[in-house]
Predict the structure.
Amino acid sequence: MIADITEPDSAIARQAEELARRVSSDTLFNHVMRCYWFAELFAQQEGTKVDSELMFLSAVLHDLGLTEEAPGPHRFEVEGAGVARSFLEAHGVPAERAQLVWDNIALHTWDVNPFRGDTSRLMQLGLSYDVSGVQDAGLDPADVAEVLRRYPRLQFKRAFNELLNREVDTKQPYNHWVHICTRVAHNRSPIQIVDAPVVLDWAPFDE
């Protein structure tokens, strides 16, 4: 329990956590767990009721695409979403609910989840806080410190950048869609796109 929040203790939540633990490095596993807890802290801060199990499954499984569990040719969020959905359905989760997890994971690298309802929005906020920070987050520093104590970052910024580079290196050409309006804007006046380490350094953590 952190800040009077108890993580879901259903069979499928435990199985999902076990899967993430089994296929992830310590750094990646700690990241996905922090994402869940930060999402719950944001929900508590707002006083917003969420589907905690759905948020847990989505957060804990959201980076399967950066592991050997999802080695396919598509970008990691899509590959990981497919593996997560298959895993959940194989463990008795109704297809409609497994699809909600697929949606949350497949869309988590875009700007769509913040507009898809409170559970998806707050899950995304938790992910964003851990990866690149959230302006004026306002989370209780003691709660953040407890999450970090339980799930240390373990040089997350460096390790995550290495995972992203491996993703690009192993999938050539890298078939990632660029928003059509971004194409228009870039061709009017070239857009400067910062590299991943810059984005990761926006997060309010040393590592």
Notes: The mean pLDDT is 96. The domain at 11-201 is CATH 1.10.3210 (Hypothetical protein af1432).
